[in-house]
Every structure is written in structure tokens, then in C-alpha cells.
Amino acid sequence: MIHRKKTGSIVCPSCGKLISANSKECYYCGRKNPGLWGYGPELQKLFGNFSEATPILVGACVVLYVISLLIDPAALFRPHGLFNILSPSMKALDNIGMTGTYALAHGRWWTLVTAIYLHGGLLHILFNMLWLYQLGHMVENLFGRSRTFLIFTISGVLGFFVSDMLGIMFTIGASGSIFGLLGALVYYGRKRGGFFGRQIYTQIGTWAIVLFLFGFMMPGVNNFAHAGGFIGGYISAQLLGFHEISRETETHRMLALAAVILTVISFVLEFVM
User: Fold this and answer.
1) pLDDT digits (tens, 9 = 90+) for 28-56
2) What would the pLDDT profile of 72-114 be if each residue is shown by its tens digit?
3) What are phi and psi of 19, to 5 degrees?
4) What is the 8-class DSSP label of residue 38?
5) Same domain membership, residue 129 and residue 41
6) Residue 136 gets which letter from DSSP?
7) Is 137 labeled as catalytic in the residue annotation?
8) Which position among 51, 226, 252, 266 bears the catalytic label?
9) Do residues 215 and 223 touch, judged by C-beta distance below 8 A?
10) Catalytic one among 175, 177, 236, 266?
11) Would residue 3 count as lying in a domain?
């Protein structure tokens, strides 16, 4: 049985700050009904920290990777190299939302969104999810949940748009969005300044350079999407702001909801069309 908590203190599911359980609005981030009418603490016990975007993004990528394997299970028994262990077939990836010049030539614009969540092998998704989990939590702590999802989505779409315009025929993966998170953190470090800002700027800037160089050493890496995603993340962060400049607003949350709806619609269009 779930009991409502109407008194005492709770942790705001959006910003993580301690607030009154019966607050109609979080004093720090502006979230409406942060206690979910008294049910918030019990729901968190049942479902974990449902307020974070990063675990949801990681989970979506993993689920869609498994689905891509199940669409064409025969592909699992074909010979693969080290970098293609447990790789979905091209047919399966195309059916579930791979993007590139081929998809856009057939009018499938929505693949700019769906391809963000698809991966071409076990090492591909493992590498990307490790970076997404680490960088996603950093961005959420500094920007908030809604702005993190917006940065992730905008960066991925812009990265694929750039690579598609430059002639990449087939491409998938969350790495463009991950570079967008790097771009957002680099912007934060430069804008904030001070000791903490310089530390973030130096550390994240070093990671970005290393990952860019690493991309040129690995076969089949879409470096155009990485560059476009990084730029998208930097600009998105500049436009959306971060906690120390302004708290997340209802506009941010509505834009994030629109991005979620666009993502769902994109997958529906891919399956239907």
C-alpha cells in the first residue's frame, strides 16, 4: 500500500534539493507539485529515481539494440570481426530507423531522430553507454533534466544532419549526442569561469580532443556527426542556460516534452512507413 507524505521534507525530483513535502512549487527549480501530491517518496521507492533523464536514455538505447538483434536473429550467426560482435544486420537497422543519405533520399527525415538510439554492435553500444552515463549525469547536475534531454536530442539531430549533408550514406549511434554533452560542458566551463569552471573546461576539453582523435583511428566512425553534435551541444547550452544562470522553467519542460513526443512519433513513422 502506498502512503502519501504530506509533511516533513522530501528531495525535489528535478533539482535534488531538500524542500517541503507539501510545496506547490520547488523554491529552487520551479517544478510544479514536486512531491507529486504526497506520493513522490513512495513512487521513488517503487521505481527508483524516475526523475533523471540519463538512465532513461541509456535504457532506451539498450532496449532498441536488443530489438534490432531480434528483428533479424540470423545475423548473430554470421561471421563478424572483433569490432562487430553481436551486430544487427543492415536490414534490421534500416527497418528500425538508420539514417544517412539513403534514408533522406526516400523522405525519411525522422531517421535523424531514431538513429540516435541505434547501435551497430556490442562494443559500439557499450562504449557509448559508458560515456552517456557519465557525461549525462554531469550535464543533468549542471543544467537539469529537461535541458539535458534537449541538448541530447538537438545535438544528435544536428550531428546526423551535418553528416548526411556531407554524403554519409548509412549511419547510427548516440555518439553525436554524446559529443553534444561534451560541447555543453565545455560551454559551461568557459562561461562559469573560476576554479571549478576552469577545471571542467580543462578536463572535458581534454576528453573531447582525445575522443575526436580516437574517432579518426577507428574504422567506420562518423566524425562529421561528432563535430556537428559538439557544435549543437555548445550552442544549445548557450541558448538554454544552466542552473547558476537561470533555473529550469516551464518553457524548458514543455520543449523537452515536445522533443519526447517528436522522438516517439519518429519511431512510429518508421514502423508504419
Assistant:
1) 666 655 655 455 555 454 444 446 899 99
2) 887 777 766 666 778 899 999 999 999 999 999 999 999 999 9
3) -140, 170
4) G
5) no
6) H
7) no
8) 226
9) yes
10) 175
11) no
